[in-house]
Amino acid sequence: MEKIFTTSNEIKSEIINLSAILNLPKGTEAFVSDIHGEYDEFAHILRNGSGNTRQKISELFTGRLTADSQKKLAFLIYYPSEILKQTKESMPDEASLSQWYIDTFNELIEMLRYTSSKYTRSKVRKAIKDDFVYITEELLYADSNDNAKYKYYYEVMDSIVRLGMADSFIISTCHTIQRLVVDHLHIIGDVYDRGPHPDYIIDHLMKRWGSLDFQWGNHDILWIGSAAGSKLCMANLIRISARYNNLRLLTNYGIGLSDLREFAEKNYKPLDSFKPKSDTGAKIPDDDACYDNCVQQAIAIMQFKLEGQAIQRNPEFQMSGRMLLDKLSPDRKTVEIDGKKYPVIDGCFQLVDPDDPYKLTDEEEKILIDLSQQFIDAPKLRYHMAYMMNNGSMYLKYNGNLLLHGCVPVDEEGKMLSWTVDGKTYAGKSLFDFFEKVLKEGFQKPSLVDCKKSDIIWYLWTGKMSPLFGKLAMTTFERYFVEDTQTHHEVKNPYYSLRKEEWFADELLKEFGLDPENGHIINGHTPVKLGHSPIMANRKIFVIDGGMSKPYHKTTGIGGYTLLSNSYGFQLVTHEPFTTRKKAIADMTDVVSTKRVIEQSVKRTTVGDTDIGASLKKQIEQLTARLEAIDKNQTIRV
Ligand SMILES: O=P(O)(O)OC[C@H]1O[C@](O)(COP(=O)(O)O)[C@@H](O)[C@@H]1O
Ligand SMILES: [Mn+2]
Predict the structure, then answer these.
(1) Pocket mutation for ligand 1, best pick of 236, 476, 548 (most atoms within 8 Å of C-beta)
(2) Which residue ranges traverse the bilayer (predicted)?
(3) Under 8 Å CB-to-CB from 586, ≥6 apart: which residues?
């Protein structure tokens, strides 16, 4: 909301306020990607500020607290309720507990003072729970050298304990520290799919996080697209949910699956290729496994039929190679792919009409329409997707850096590939802008009708010109039905080999209107394999797949990476695989293993050097102009 100033003194004090902010150190940005529904791990990373909290504790308390006490303090900040409970149980008597409370208040206030030193008082105030603003500020801005006041501060703390507020004060202060350790969060896509709780992630962010942005990932598109009425996005989403034993999530969003279940169990029998994957490695109960297996088959067949229809409707998608239902032999024992015949394993084509393979049966049609309407109508899903839409984009230019999930589609030479749709040609930045426009319009007006918009939204998931997918074709059919793993291979866009080259990074930054001397590109999407570096193009491109997806740990070996950008430069943070929240708390394992400084600037970056700084400077200019106008008027009147 715009502030209204009535007197010139008000304008002057605002100018003073804004000018002072320009000189504060730039706030810490954290970059996270590919969370894939792993709420507990993501929440852990938020709680520990991507390793930042631990570092601050060490800077502040080394020499005063032992390594073990520092660790305990860190875990109290991450998991205040649980650690409080543990601590209280271990205290021998009331007096020891009271002493612990006072010591802890002092440590937490010191941490809060340290983490908030970059911010204005008003910003810090907003991060404190209303009930505790007054008390916290009294302690936070206390002058500990003032002996006379020392007794007063002690009295405040003692009263907190006496009045039974100690626990809530500690919890609230820990949450404030969590909030302030990282100033702004960038989520570089793929919040959804594979893991169990993307819904908790969005809830958590909505409730507890202030400043953030999303760059949508290909998996997020399936969910946004489904809420926009795309049956193809929805079929993929349900198939993946069944594949990862995750249909419960849809029920949590209020989507009724009983008709689909009944239909699937009536028409399909469990097959090996459709065995669901367990997120935790634990055995999936037989009943669930059978349900997931049959639903996966039923919806996969509907997906392949819908795909065939969309591909035929849109020749510019150039996806005819993905139409494989009509390449099955009459006995369905072989399939022809790129002119070569392969045996079919675990075929389940009983509802595919050989004469019209892409035609849905009446029952399939009815199920799809009913489900799609449910996805459009589900209030919580709409609410979550609207949050991602309102705070998200296809790419983001932020403080001179370019953030995007997948790639910029290019040819072997690194030239931006162009794509013509409805007579208009797009490449590079304009391609991203085009997709964003279509997605926004589609989301604003959900529709059950298969139209160009919903086809393009689905294309974002799987098309070769999609910056979010970045591969030539998705081999889902082959992965289910063909044993020869060569057919499973998905060819990546040349972007992925070129991004090692500095000149290429420079070209991309220029394409998006950024300065190649100072800008960086931050990508998610591709897990960084053990032994490979996530830092490319002479430190201009960082790939920070968070590696949180548990089923992918065998590919990444380590958990993954996150990135921090503070007033001193960039730091890459390596994460060890996270097991469970319970285990993290019990063993006090921090997950962050190493931090590597990538870039360290000689001069500390201030708010004045950032995008926010630029807009503050503009405001100062406008206010100064108004002030001059007022002064002139007054002089004339005199
Ligand atoms: O391992 P899964 O879950 O079957 O998924 C494989 C599919 O996922 C994709 O890699 C897309 O997901 P990502 O964005 O996580 O890479 C497809 O290219 C591939 O066909
Ligand atoms: Mn992805």
Answers:
(1) 476
(2) none
(3) none
CB of 456 closer than 8 Å to CB of 428: no
Residue 166 shares a structural domain with residue 243: no
Shared domain check, 228 and 370: yes
pTM: 0.93
Alpha carbon of residue 448 to chain centroid: 28
User: What spacing in Å lies between the alpha carbon of 369 and ligand 2's midpoint?
Assistant: 27
Is the same domain home to 215 and 353? Answer: yes
Which residues have C-beta under 5 Å from ligand 2, the single-atom ion?
A: 190, 217-218, 525
Tell me the per-residue pLDDT of 264-317, one tens digit each, with 9 for 90 and over: 999 999 999 999 999 888 899 999 999 999 999 999 999 999 999 999 999 999
In a domain, 604, yes or no: no
Strands lying side by side in the sheet with 401-404:
395-398, 401-404, 521-523, 541-543, 535-536
Would you say residue 519 lies in a domain? Answer: no
Q: Please give the Cα distance from 410 to 427 (Å, whole number).
A: 9
Q: Are 302 and 368 within 8 A, CB to CB?
A: yes
The reply to whether 569 falls in a domain is: no
Distance CA 454, CA 226 (A): 9
The ligand 1 atom at the shortest distance from the C-alpha of residue 468 is: 14
Residue 631: which domain range? 1-24+622-638
Q: Domain total for the chain? A: 3
Q: Which of 479, 482, 489, 543 to mutate to test the pocket of ligand 1 (most atoms within 8 A of CB)?
A: 479
Question: Residue 148 and residue 556: Cα distance in Å, rounded?
Answer: 58
